[in-house]
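The aim of this short unit is practical: by the end, you should be able to scan a pair of folded records and say something sensible about each. We start with the first protein, listed as its amino acid sequence and then its structure tokens.
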Amino acid sequence: MRITTKGRYALRALINLAATSQGRPKPIKAIAKEENISPEFLEQIFFKLKKADLINSVRGPGGGFMIHRDPATISVKAIFLAVEEGLDLTPCTPCIPCDDSEGENLRNGADPCSNTDQCVARSVWKTISDQIIRYLESITLATILEENQEQLQSLLDQSRPD
């Protein structure tokens, strides 16, 4: 599993949005500036996050983006699934653990190993993959906000209007 720039930026942007928007729409340019992310690249990321129903947009004056669900229900896994190509650790451990609704998203399209049936190491990769996925499921935006209040204070100070 490789977390790309899209995954890292998506997580940072959603943390920013959850920490600073206070239930009001926040312009993408403000988030991009605060997180030092290209607004155009962030638009691409937000398109995927909106499609995954993690954020919604409000048009017009005072518009912007908002977290669509309670931050306690948005896991890091859900964020990565929205923007990453897949969460496979190796070609022989696709979709583990996953259910039918997420299976296609977890699979990164790599061809399964031709040695899967005889491979002794597969159980090691499966165990590692399972633990990573479970860990990503266990971390929510709310957890991140709670555990990083001190660091988030500078972000809150920065995002306040002058």
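Turning to the second protein, read its sequence before its tokens, just as you did above.
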Amino acid sequence: MDKKARLEALKKELESYLPALGQAADTIREQGVSKYPILVLHKLEVDIGIPIIDRHRVQGDWSVNASTLEEFVTKRLVQPEQVDHFRKVYKNPDEFVCLFVLSDLGANFVFLPRA
């Protein structure tokens, strides 16, 4: 499955999550926590962000933690010298949610359209 097909499959799988993902990202921005919210999607326990969706309590395979670029830098998931590059590629948060997806394919940043 190519990258575009995987993105489409992920988008379909996350349709029911999208309102909560958007709301979490908006809250992070509106409360001045960060201009760069990152939502961590995972199936195992992770030590980053604040849990907002537990896959054992919803109909879905993904748990979600809310995080930020700043936390990713602190935890060295994004190197300090890469921050400017990350900010340049970060898509408009009014139109996309930034996901950090931990799956059997590895760890990948994905910008999922809100609509």
